[in-house]
Amino acid sequence: MSRVRVESARNVLLNVEDVSLAFGGVRALQQVSFDVYEHEIRAIIGPNGAGKSSMLNVINGVYTPQHGRITFLGKVRENMDTHQAAADGIARTFQSLALFRGMSVLDNIMTGRNLRMKTGVLLQAVHFGPAKKEELRHREHVEHIIDFLEIQAHRKTPVGRLPYGLQKRVDLGRALAMEPKLLLLDEPMAGMNLEEKEDMCRFVLDVSEEFGTTIVLIEHDMSVVMDISDRVVVLDYGKKISDGAPDEVRNSKNVIDAYLGVAH
Amino acid sequence: MGTYLQRNWAIVALITAIVIGMALPLAVGLSAPGFYFEVMLGGLMSGVLYSLVALGLVLIFKASGVFNFAQGAMVLFAALSVARMSEVMPLPVAFVLAIGVMAVFAWLIERLVLRHLVNQDAVVLLMATLGVSFFLDGFGQTVWGSDIYQIDTGLPKTPVLVAENIFQGGILINTEDLVAAAAAALLVIALALFFQKTPTGRALRAVADDHQAAQSIGIPLNRIWVIVWTVAGFVALVAGVVWGSKLGVQFSVSLVALKALPVVILGGFTSVPGAILGGLIIGVGEKFAEVFLGPILVKQFDLAGGGIENWFAYMLALLFLLVRPEGLFGEKHIDRV
């Protein structure tokens, strides 16, 4: 039941070539290659410890791989850091929530606009004129996101007090506020009940439709992923074992073995 | 409420004891009301200074998890800069230049120290600031000299008598003290607005909450640190000028950092209101202890009395550590991974 969309636009936004990452003796990723087209929803799945999060952290600039090359927007990135990745248009959400707990929903999402604010600290301190105008313009954009994620009622609530499912939405909202070219979702459905999962699926699809954002998502739960993604990469023990449309992947022998176990 | 009392009886008892202890001298007629309030004002005045120094500590701790032992040295250095520069130029100009000096200092600290020690243990960072503290004390004397210098704010030092018709004798207040207190209050309000209302303030709060997430949305940690140390330097500057105009600028100013430590223990390491309130409580508390408790000790136990002001703050902080380690307003758990 995969969506066959955007077949026409086949521009490669992100290209991962031959990436290997090791922590001491632990080989987290071994010669992984895949590409991500513009506007697609690309999933990375795999059992626990398959290297999914490491892959995401490599794209995001948290880890620098020992081998391999990552090309984003036609530019090869080297020794990238997180801050640089954000500046280039890569946003992410976190598996274990990393929201600013003491701040309101509105402020949390507003922080996502930080990179786009141009007025200097001193002008901001005066808080009139250009600084105020800029703040209002960004506020408008953030209000749009709040409407989109249906969290209007919680605008002023400190996020620490929201239920888990809503916190996940705020996390998504903060990433969306950056107007990213590439959105990385780290297990967006983890720990959610069925209803929350369905909501989140809908939001992911809507983000893709409405903003045209390219999405790479990591998920543990295979069924969810198969429904919403265009193409799927499967990792197991740090190696890529399958890559293709959801139906192809589902029927691949390697994948079935990895998920169900196989007699050696 | 019942369960709250059950769980927190110790802190409630401690706060009650503080309040009763403060009201007691007046209640039992140990002093005339006029004198009582004068002592209280004196305490509030030194309390404001403690608050300002503690505020600097809290700002830096929140944003970078560093306990900045050098905050007192920063106060001294800023005060020295203003005092010596105001000898050759008008005070406002010297003040503005001193802000620049503190900003350059903040930038150097980030470049030379913090950047290289990121993700090290808190102890390592504390040691680094200890080193910075000694360097700054010495460097200040190298550049500006080691005499006692005056900062002349031009404010009248004549005391005013208020509340004369409420009770006999009224209260003597120094105009300069009032202006200083007002300036401190203004500074705190301005900082609160800056933190709550501006994008940079929001970014600072974001970094204080979660480093990793802040980086992932493109908030540059290095720049935030420079800003936060500059703001802390500015707070130190105000504290230094207030102190210097009252008591003169000398090396002992640097030691005020040692008094700010019990203040942040009492108020909570991560709380701005805690730093303010903690400073005032300790300022008033130690003055009361010195003035009212001292004579009792002399009379009842034949002790020499005196010196209470020096240890009272630490004893109070110790009690807080036993009863409520996170302080009055601090966050209970500070997990940084």
Explain what this protein looks like in three dimensions:
The complex is a heterodimer of chains A (264) and B (337). Chain A is built from 10 helices and 10 strands. In chain A, the strands form 2 sheets. A 6-stranded mixed beta sheet of chain A has the order 6-7-8-3-9-10, sandwiched between helices. A 4-stranded antiparallel beta sheet of chain A has the order 2-1-4-5, covered by helices on one side. With 264 residues, chain A is of the alpha/beta class. Chain A has helices spanning 52-60, 82-88, 105-111, 121-126, 130-148, 164-177, 194-211, 222-228, 246-251, 253-260; strands at 12-23, 26-37, 41-45, 67-72, 75-77, 90-92, 182-186, 214-219, 231-236, 239-244. Chain A folds into 2 domains: 1-89 and 180-264, P-loop containing nucleotide triphosphate hydrolases (Rossmann fold, 3-Layer(aba) Sandwich); 99-178, no CATH class. Helices cover 38% and strands 24% of the residues of chain A. Chain B is mainly alpha-helical and 337 residues long. Chain B has a domain at 34-253. Helix content of chain B is 73%, strand content 2%. Chain B has helices spanning 2-7, 9-27, 33-64, 71-85, 91-117, 122-144, 175-197, 199-209, 211-216, 221-247, 256-267, 272-301, 308-323; strands at 159-162, 171-174. A two-stranded antiparallel ribbon of chain B has the order 1-2. In chain B, strand 1 (159-162) and strand 2 form a beta hairpin. The longest helix of chain B is centred in the first third of the chain and has 32 residues, at 33-64. The relative contact order of chain B is 0.18. The model of chain B has no long low-confidence stretch (mean pLDDT 86). The interface between A and B is medium-sized, with 34 and 24 residues.
